[in-house]
Amino acid sequence: MTPDPFEAGIASGWNVQQATDIANAEQLKTDVVIVGSGAGGATAAEMLALAGFKVLILEAGPLKRSKDFVMEERRAYPELYQQSAAMLNQQQSIGIMQGRAVGGSTTVNWTTSIRTPDKTLSFWQSDKRVEGLDAQSLAPYFEAAEQRLGITTWTADANPNNQVIADGCRALGWQYTKINRNVKGCWNLGYCGMGCPINAKQSMLVTSIPTALSHGARLITQAQVWQMSFDGERVNELLVRAIDEADRSLSRQFSVKAKHVILAGGAINTPALLMRSNAQDPHRVLGRNTTLHPSLISAAIFDEPIKAHSGAPQSYYSDEFVWKNGVQGRMGFKIEAAPLHPMLLASKSFGFGRQHADLMKQFNYLHASIALVRDGFDSLHGAGQVVLDEQGHAHLNYPLSKGFWEAAKRAFMAMAQMQFAAGAKAVLPIHDNMPMFESWQHASKVIAKTNFEELTTVVASAHVMGGCAMGEDPTMAWVSSQGKSHYYKNLTVMDGSIFPTSLGANPQLSIYAITRKNCETLIKELHERV
């Protein structure tokens, strides 16, 4: 087990506080303030601190460490996720899981690390006016992130849940790939989504944030940046509210003045903060084209135990259908396995009473596949919009499009075919009133005739992207390809909100690499200002 870096670090004098430790109405000053401590914010904090800048990290979530990660869903979801892992879009048709703790979603993700697909980067360049982020330009930054975070191909045997992906794809002649993971000394426990209790996951919690703190950075937790004020073309001040672990505002607030501001609060909170602050947005792009990789679930029952709660959550995926109809053709989807834990299964399946109880009794024999739909590449694909209520709180308006439901039908058919090819004795697409199928022939006929629609089909997401798009055309983008605001000289965005579309791949490695490249540029510019 790797020691908790915070234990020795805090004892040695790391500057780590809660917002309630700051005097009411106090004003803090720093070189760079970073809002958020996830993949983008922590990477930037490490690089800037190593470059000699005075860095302040503001994190709305609590500091939770390996000693707090007890592998229990009842504690992990309320302590580590936005809205206790029960966030929904406005239509209440998509369950959205986002981290809310020091390290952001990197603390609770499943460690899957995939480079941005070349087709996505090419589309950004040709259709979204993104410059300097082609595959060749990004390659050294991917390599640096992979080296820093121990990202390598998972060499241990796949657990049975993931082996279904490999076996089914191999039998059908479909493409499939072994997954790269950001782990060192992994014990193969399978509880990555509840925080790593042995610090093997190379999340921001145990890598970049400790390095930043060791080089003089300051971290304030449970600190919600509510608004920013502006002075012409510059951010003037940040207004910060102390909140408790349940996200309730306390009666204390303070302000921050910084020479440069980095927003890295994620693809809902970053545009929401800018909108609450009445930031310039003449082309009304803030909050728009928010994408999710909305995902569908297909369960399968096997004769032999699967024990999908045990072992690396994800070790195989298939891109057989991601680009089958082109970049802007019918929506493609990526097939992955999903780990199963009792609360997660119960909340992401249909049925009541005996039907639901019978499903739960099969827990150790259940496999789950997910199809991540590649959204946001054109108007037919669909995307969402971040909106504010009267109190200024953020919500996601995301109606699922006809194009999505057409993709859902193809995805359910593909997952069922793969599961039967891998030896499943029964398959259950997670859709209201869908029967348990005992053959591919029966499944394909019923799925083809089924009308999939909102609230009758479980749709989930753990990949929120966009809403503060990058590009060189301000009519489409709020920041440049380097993440620099088109309107404020001392404001940069470094998180997944800058993606102009979804990725077609799990996003953490894309955020690491693009942040590294853009932060390198920022450091040069900041040194030139001195």
UniProtKB/TrEMBL annotation:
SUPFAM superfamilies: FAD/NAD(P)-binding domain. Coiled coil: none annotated. Signal peptide: none annotated. Keywords: FAD, Flavoprotein, Oxidoreductase. Residues 79-294 form the Glucose-methanol-choline oxidoreductase N-terminal domain. The keyword Ribonucleoprotein does not apply. One of its GO terms (molecular function) is flavin adenine dinucleotide binding. Residues 393-514 form the Glucose-methanol-choline oxidoreductase C-terminal domain. FAD binds at residues 225, 496, 507-508. Residues 31-66 form the FAD-dependent oxidoreductase 2 FAD-binding domain. Its cofactor is FAD. Belongs to the GMC oxidoreductase family. PANTHER family: LONG-CHAIN-ALCOHOL OXIDASE. This is GMC family oxidoreductase. It comes from Paraferrimonas haliotis. The lineage of its organism: Bacteria, Pseudomonadati, Pseudomonadota, Gammaproteobacteria, Alteromonadales.
